[in-house]
Amino acid sequence: xxxxxxxxxxxxxxxxxxxxxxxxxxxxxxxxxxxxxxxxxxxxxxxxxxxxxxxxxxxxxxxxxxxxxxxxxxxxxxxxxxxxxxxxxxxxxxxxxxxxxxxxxxxxxxxxxxxxxxxxxxxxxxxxxxxxxxxxxxxxxxxxxxxxxxxxxxxxxxxxxxxxxxxxxxxxxxxxxxxxxxxxxxxxxxxxxxxxxxxxxxxxxxxxxxxxxxxxxxxxx
Length: 221
Ligand SMILES: C[S@@+](CC[C@H](N)C(=O)[O-])C[C@H]1O[C@@H](n2cnc3c(N)ncnc32)[C@H](O)[C@@H]1O
What we know:
Rossmann fold, binds S-adenosylmethionine
């Protein structure tokens, strides 16, 4: 699918500058809150970090987890991830999050994905979630974390929405430092939308909204 190919290429080319998003001064309070939450949530778990990128969150998770397995379609960000220091056993593998073909013996007690939900077309979300759940142990813990759209009033704005397509996905034009521009899906779901999608497949749903990020926790039903 073309939109998936563009997303992969965009993140491959953005790798050298990716971690700058974690240095934005206005976001530091939220990031510190997220780090505390993530460490608490994953204590003692075998965690699958989906679309792990440069391993920013894998490092945080590893400070309390039993093990972390990062999966990303691009090897360039994972080469960066391998340079970090981790607090528990960790492995990285190149793989497509939409395929999630993991051996059964590796069933994880928890999954995490940061900055990934927003890139999944609305029509593909349910299929993605069901596939993810099948890679996990029964009643596994699942956590997603992603951006809230910020309109710029009183702070730095999100990249503007370039268009909204027929199924309601929002798109943004993103420029990498080489000057190349990519148009990618970037959705900003509401708590209600997420709850509706999870109805029947998740329990103990908890939604936390900060200023720049939301965090969703649930257990697979
Ligand atoms: C917004 S980044 C998030 C990286 C990391 N989770 C973080 O929050 O710092 C999205 C990541 O998704 C990866 N990606 C894109 N398409 C993918 C796919 N089909 N399967 C797995 N990873 C994919 C990109 O390579 C990129 O590292």
